[in-house]
Amino acid sequence: MTPIDMVKCRMQIDNTVYRNLTDGLHRIWKHNGIQGVYRGGLPTLLGYSMQGMGKYGFYEFFKYEYSQAMPTANKTALFLAASATAEFFADIMLCPMEAFKVRLQTSGTPFCSGFVDGLSRIYRSEGLHGFYKGIVPLWMRQIPYTMVKFASFENIVAGIYHSVLRRPKSEFTKGQQLGVTCTAGYLAGILCAIVSHPADTIVSKLNSSAQGTSAGQIVRELGMRGLWAGLLPRIFMIGTLTCTQWTIYDSFKVKIGLPTTGGN
């Protein structure tokens, strides 16, 4: 997903730079080759791996804890509360790599000579604040994103079994259940992308702007239309990513003898 993320970030910083996703990929490849297309790939891999482990692990933990503390609560409310809490902690793990990734992808000239050099440059110029100056907009993006991701996924899975397949989950093979997981994951990802996109634009712009720039300044500068720049590449990226994440997660659960998520 790094090439699509690359184009998306640059379109958010300057919505006139590319006509569309295909144009952006073609121009980056033409001028910078495969290195240009995959710029920011390492911090993306590290950051979202750490965030993913935290997000899914904390979600299962808090879903259990909240269900024990509030056994009569509405299921969707429990999904929302557990996912919001999980994402709060997961974003603390993600934020430094997100800040580094955006600088790599949006810098007009090479930002650094390597991974360690890039981290050192940020720390020397801005200190720890340089890695976490985007944490509040990141929470604004990721917490609604994750609440929609988990709550909508669980409800979409239930809806597929109840209204589309019209048979209980237990009557389907594990492979068929994973097919439902994949479909529900992609649909949930589309909703996630739409809900969180304005905050994602602010995060990209903030991490590429001069020190001292505020989120409010960026909103005034971009306006409503600018906040939605790069939405279509992000829908494709997040839909695919969410589908893949849920499929890997449920495949792991099946492998160790646990049921797939949702639809019970």
Give the tags:
264 residues, mainly alpha, 10 helices, 80% helix, globular
- SSE string: HHHHHHHHHH
Number of strands: 0
The residue-averaged pLDDT reads: 87
Q: Which class best fits the helix and strand makeup?
A: mainly alpha
Give the overall shape: globular
Distance between the first and last residues' Cα: 32 Å
Oligomer state of the chains in this structure: single chain
Number of helices: 10
Rounded to an integer in angstroms, the radius of gyration calculated over CA atoms is 19 Å
Characterize the largest beta sheet: strand count, sense, and whether it forms a barrel: none
Helix percentage: over 70%
Note poorly predicted spans. Answer: none
Strand fraction equals under 5%
In short:
With 264 residues, the protein is mainly α.
What does this protein look like?
Helix 1 packs across helix 2. 80% of the residues lie in helices and 0% in strands. It is globular, with a radius of gyration of 19 Å. The chain has 264 residues and is mostly helical. The longest helix has 35 residues. The mean pLDDT is 87.
What is this structure's SSE topology?
Elements: H1 2-13, H2 21-37, H3 41-69, H4 75-106, H5 115-126, H6 129-132, H7 135-165, H8 174-208, H9 215-227, H10 231-255
Helix pairs in contact: 1-2, 1-10, 3-4, 4-7, 7-8, 8-9, 8-10
